């Protein structure tokens, strides 16, 4: 499989990821249990997007110097297309986290702690999934058609309004299994995941929430990772775009915490994008679509979706008044 990734590039990228995680941790640590303000979350969200953009620019400069402008343009467009796709799909993941925290009445201070673990888990799980997926694509190229068919199916589910049917917290299989097989205390015990009562180890509801956060990311990874392989099969681009989109999830969570109901048309936009890239994957042998078309399509659909959602929100507010 052709890739621009070298051991030094991977090492440099993982160092960047580690530094960004430390910055993320320090940036929210000073809040001391107070709710994160929307303005603060917005500043951090802009910062993460800016860092992802600068990484794309640095990647272009490196490739332009080492491999020429043509390859640099191609790979950087693949990176930004993958980044936008993963960022938009991550919004749906954030809404599921909101539902989980609301269902268990998790206070803001513990939300930040759980989200940190959630992002760390997502980075580890998705890195593993991406390399496994890249191996399958290299060894069994026909799996791209399975990915394509799955994306078309998932996209139509979103368009029919069924894209969030798996977000009913009580129906999650992992929650039912945990409640059946693990001793769980009825109340929270601060920030503890486990406690001992009369010499017996019990899990707390906070441990349940942590498992649900990680499980939800696995569920969404099933959609997002095949989707980005439709944009590029270069594992380095897949990995960098995916992790750059994930790193800003904590800030995005607090930014979107009060805006869940305003993203009315987001599922439909995601459905259109998934159907588009699914058909693109199915037509690989017939027509090779230039990456700039995919990137332009994703940008246009997300822009229209945001505009329609804003209009819908304004009309709803005017009607409510």
Automatic annotation (TrEMBL):
Membrane topology: Multi-pass membrane protein
Alphabetical keyword list: Membrane, Transmembrane, Transmembrane helix
Compartment annotation: Membrane
One cellular-component annotation, GO: membrane
Transmembrane segments: 6-28, 40-63, 89-107, 114-136, 142-159, 206-230, 236-257, 264-283, 289-310
Pfam families attached to this UniProt entry: TerC
Highest taxon listed in the record's lineage: Bacteria
NCBIfam families, sorted: R_switched_Alx
Family: Belongs to the TerC family.
Alphabetical list of PANTHER family matching this protein: MEMBRANE BOUND PREDICTED REDOX MODULATOR, THYLAKOID MEMBRANE PROTEIN TERC, CHLOROPLASTIC
Name of the protein described by the UniProt record: TerC family protein
Species of the source: Acinetobacter variabilis
């Amino acid at each position: 499989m052709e890739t621009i990734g070298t051991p030094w590039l991977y090492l440099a990228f993982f160092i960047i990821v580690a530094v960004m995680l430390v910055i993320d941790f320090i940036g929210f640590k000073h809040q001391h249990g107070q709710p994160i303000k929307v303005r603060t979350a917005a500043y951090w969200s802009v910062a993460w997007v800016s860092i992802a953009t600068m990484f794309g620019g640095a990647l272009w400069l490196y490739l332009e110097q080492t491999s020429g402008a043509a390859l640099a343009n191609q790979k950087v467009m693949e990176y930004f297309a993958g980044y936008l796709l993963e960022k938009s799909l991550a919004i749906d993941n954030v809404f599921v986290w909101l539902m989980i925290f609301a269902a268990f009445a998790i206070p803001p201070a513990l939300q930040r702690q759980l989200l940190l673990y959630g992002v760390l888990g997502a980075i580890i799980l998705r890195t593993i999934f991406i390399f496994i997926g890249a191996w399958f694509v290299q060894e069994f190229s026909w799996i791209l058609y399975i990915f394509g068919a799955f994306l078309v199916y998932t996209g139509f589910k979103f368009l029919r309004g069924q894209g969030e049917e798996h977000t009913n917290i009580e129906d999650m299989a992992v929650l039912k299994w945990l409640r059946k097989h693990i001793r769980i205390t009825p109340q929270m015990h601060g920030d503890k995941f486990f406690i001992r009562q009369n010499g017996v180890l019990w899990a707390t509801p906070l441990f349940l929430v942590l498992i649900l956060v990680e499980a939800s990311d696995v569920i969404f990874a099933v959609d997002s990772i095949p989707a980005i392989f439709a944009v590029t099969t270069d594992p380095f681009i897949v990995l960098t775009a995916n992790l750059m989109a994930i790193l800003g999830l904590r800030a995005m969570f607090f930014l979107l915490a009060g805006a869940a109901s305003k993203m009315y048309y987001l599922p439909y936009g995601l459905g259109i994008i998934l159907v588009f890239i699914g058909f693109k994957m199915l037509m690989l042998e017939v027509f090779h679509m230039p990456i700039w078309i995919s990137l332009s399509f994703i940008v246009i659909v997300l822009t229209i979706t945001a505009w329609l959602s804003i209009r819908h929100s304004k009309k709803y507010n005017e009607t409510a008044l």
